[in-house]
Amino acid sequence: MQNPTITKSLSNYPISAVLDSLQESLAAGHTVLKSPTGSGKTTIAPITLLGQDWLHGKKIYMLEPRRVAARAAAYRMSSLLGERIGQTVGYITRYSKEFSANTKIFIVTEGVFLKTIQKDQELTDIGLVIFDEYHERSLIADLCLALCLDLATLREDFRLLVMSATLDSEKLAKLLDNARIVESAGKSFPVSVIYQPPATEFTPLSMSVTSAISYALANYEGDILTFLPGIADIKSVERELESIGNNVKILPLYGDLPIEQQDKILAPKQNRQRRVVLATPVAETSLTVDGVRCIVDSGLHKHPVYNPKNGLTSLVTSRISRASAEQRRGRAGRQNSGMCIRLWDEKIHHGLLAFTPPEICNADLTSLVLELAHWGVNDAKQLKWLDPPGKGAWEKAVKLLTQLSALNKKGEITDIGRKLRKFPLHPRLSYMLLKATELSLGLTGCYLAGILSERDIFQGHDNGIDIRDRIKALSSLSNRSSSYSGRANLNTQVCKQILQQVEQWRKTLGIRWAETINSEETGNLLCFCYPDRIAIGRSQQDSTFQLANGRQARISAQDSLNNSQIIVAAKVDVRGGNGKIFLAAPTTLMELEKNHPDLISTSDHIRWDKKELAVQARRETFIGLAKISSKPISLQDKDVALTLLLKGIQETGSEALPWSKSSRELQARLQTLFNYDQNNWQDFSDEALIQDLTWLEPFCYGFTKVQQLRDIDFQSALLAKLSYNKQQLLQTLAPTHTKVPSGSNIKITYHLGDEPRLAVRLQEVFGMCDTPTICGGSLPLTLHLLSPARRSMQITKDLKSFWQRTYPEIKKELAGRYPKHYWPDNPLEAQATSRTKRKM
């Protein structure tokens, strides 16, 4: 039965043409309403469905993705009914609510509805749940729809109406048990589109937006609605527009804006002054800003992206989808023909994603898994999803909740898990609140949770990352009037929202206001919720910290926490190589050992130190993958030390061995024998010695440093590779000296890679016919025949040929240069000597 109060107004809304079909469809079962921007679905559908027989007098709940939209829709419906807000139509959001015992239609945010359905899992007093703007596909919306579908199997009288402007209706209808699809036309005037990309890829966003706004003000009529990715971008553009003139009013619009300011923007215009509304995507759907005829679209939005590998969520700015671009364009055609200026190239537009990916595909699922456990589900496959939760993120969530003792080994919710659900927070923060209360730090924990769950209470830049400063500022504000502004950059609106939450949590936990707030315990409390983000300082020079999860992140070199050895990062972005820490608090190793000993692991390691060329035993202390300290300890296992030392020597190479001139000569003698007879002698090359160091083991047992090898008799170590008989043969086959005709015992020179040589003065080999040999006469020595001044005159391996051919030619020259020495005509018959003629 149609409400007579609004009958006259229905003709103004395109949805009026399908209201009968919608009512008939819902009487039969679940329904999908496909309706574009401007159809009136948000305001008209709920109030015209009230009083339907199949509702049996039960209430209607409509879910809105944003607080601003929920409140605006409720006020608009009440206005159509000619009532004050809170009578037939009411609303409930996180920070405000208006309803009464007579309220039949509740406009609620998705988070509020989740709490409602978990409290009453049969929704006993609710007959219809409407999902408005479901195409936005938030994580909570998908969860709520899955729970509603599960509930619907128990109640034949329960109905679902899913409304969307752009979603795949066929796929959605199939999910809703082959629900009927009702399509409505929209009410939209023509909107032209022009593409105005930035001058260069380096042009700041604020500059491009300001340029487009100036162009629109000069060339088009009406107010301008500008879509920007975040509040910081809004502030930046506001500064750029300061000189635009008094005839244009600049108005920001975002979710955390005070309600009074939101109402002024969304209310009908009272004058003809042109307005430029700078909005986040909050104005993309469900809201109509009166007087808007031009859209300036940055084409960007911020959205969370979860990385299951490190458990961190990053707020990413990326391009919107084509569907979102169309939604934004439609805002200019709600009341009249309009214009949309898109700050990107038309070619880029065709390459945009068709639809915005649902949050469930790349979100942190910890809260979702906990909610499902409370519902009695420990496997996502037990419910129906338009897109199922990702396996990796699901497993990571289960692991974390198990560590927090919120789930047991079977994946079932525990008493602690039920306590965590009492707070509209990430389970990490809820767990911290419980621990803080146990430590009589409950109020400090409430302040900390509030600060971490909202935007930064400090506005602007260069505020530092220390959370303790924020707790002190918030505490000072709460102890004074709501208008207190001890810091000029304090965002009192955000502070007010935090203090509202603190009051609720304080009551839930039974905390007295008189409890002392101890901001110095912030680091301690953060360890309960973010043990994987405890960070160890690595370099003050570049302000780098290593997180317990293995990643690295930096802070500003000028930040006060740069001098801290250990901090706990509450908000951090680790995309790319080095991440950035935005909020943190310091702690110490002593505090960690006292309050969180389970997070600290200690292990003894024995390893080869390449730099010191030594085996080192160290006791290393870790938090996760981050090393806190490393201290030397005494080395007990000599066998392990020997193995590592020998392996280290092999890695270093033969230069690690304690070579001396004499040991190198011995090596060369031994290698000469190997080259002479490889079947019976070992290879003593550097490569062979290093490859197998078993021969060295008896000489360095108990050693830990290469330097200690200098203390061993290295020649004995080399000879130890030989048997006793081979050692005797060594002197026979590769002697160190050989006797020449003069009677002198001349040293044979051995070098690796060279043939053995004998450097001897020419007079000392007079009478020697054949070249001396080693290796049993098989290897002739290379003779370096020297002058009396010990300069080399001739190198030969054929002494006989030298006497016959070369000696006669050089004799006269030598006799003239060295007249005191004996130069016979027949050297083979002459007496060898090491003296001059006078001493012979």
From TrEMBL:
The UniProt entry, under InterPro entries, shows:
DEAD/DEAH_box_helicase_dom (IPR011545), HA2_WH (IPR048333), Helicase-assoc_dom (IPR007502), Helicase_ATP-bd (IPR014001), Helicase_C-like (IPR001650), HrpB (IPR010225), P-loop_NTPase (IPR027417), RNA_helicase_ATP-dep_HrpB_C (IPR013689)
Alphabetically list the UniProt keywords.
ATP-binding, Helicase, Hydrolase, Nucleotide-binding
Q: Does the keyword Zinc-finger apply?
A: no
Domain Helicase C-terminal positions: 212-376
Which Pfam family name is an example for this entry? Answer: DEAD
| Record-annotated Helicase ATP-binding domain positions | 22-185
Indicate yes or no for the key word Coiled coil: no
Q: Which GO terms describe its molecular function?
A: ATP binding; helicase activity; hydrolase activity; nucleic acid binding
Q: What is this protein called?
A: Related to ATP-dependent helicase
| Organism (species) | Desulfotalea psychrophila (strain LSv54 / DSM 12343)
